[in-house]
Amino acid sequence: MTKILVVDDEKKIVDIVTAYLIAQKFEVEVAYSGTEALTKFYKGQPNLVVLDLMLPDLDGNEVTKRIRQDSKTPIIMLTAKSSDESIVNGLKSGADDYVVKPFSPRVVVERIKTVLRRVTEEQVEKVLSFNKGQLKIKLESQQVFVCDAEIALTHTEYDILSTMATYYRQIFTREQLIDSTRGIDYDGLDRMIDSHIKNLRRKIEDDSTKPVFIITVHGRGYRFGGSKDE
């Protein structure tokens, strides 16, 4: 059974989201603080985390950063702050998606299902290799290696990179990259993609200010710049 960890310091929100998830046959664990969330995450190994931004001890961004140190488990951030800056900061910390409060529990459940489908979608077993093995992408296991060292990416970062690398001659608009990770009906932000691109460059480029793999095409979007190995 798929396990979801729900983290919020408001018991009413936790109870409502939990009830909807149980009705959809999910197993649910709950936590009411950042510290408790980390303890239950490492002990219970959930398939996805629903995480409130404003927690009484460690905030959601800090919890996300700590999880991202060694895990790609998808994280959906709950935030009462609807500003672009707040959302972008959450995505920078490693969150895969966000839901702004107040929200419909049904929307949260559907977001969870969408993210889980994206994570578990079967891919053809294949390894993409670029620049004489400097960058390798294992599509089936969703692993990324730079100079044979595995790099931890969020699911969204991985989806962007694998999409661009698979169609490495194509220029992608921000809207196309949003579609590749969220679906065509997702109401995303252009700045969200820019934030993920910045994180990707920091992780896979030797010098993120002079990118080799993720190239900006001014006025159009991005393209993959690696040279594919035969």
UniProtKB/TrEMBL annotation:
Keyword DNA-binding: yes
Keyword terms: DNA-binding, Phosphoprotein, Transcription, Transcription regulation, Two-component regulatory system
Entry annotated with the keyword Glycosyltransferase: no
Start-end of DNA-binding region: 125-226
GO terms, biological process: regulation of DNA-templated transcription
Highest taxon of the lineage: Bacteria
Location of 4-aspartylphosphate modifications: D52
Annotated GO CC locations: cytosol; protein-DNA complex
Domain Response regulatory: 3-116
Alphabetized InterPro entries for the sequence: CheY-like_superfamily, OmpR/PhoB-type_DNA-bd, Sig_transdc_resp-reg_receiver, WalR-like, WH-like_DNA-bd_sf
PANTHER family assigned: ALKALINE PHOSPHATASE SYNTHESIS TRANSCRIPTIONAL REGULATORY PROTEIN PHOP, REGULATOR OF RPOS
Protein's recorded name: Two-component system response regulator
Annotated organism of origin: Liquorilactobacillus uvarum DSM 19971
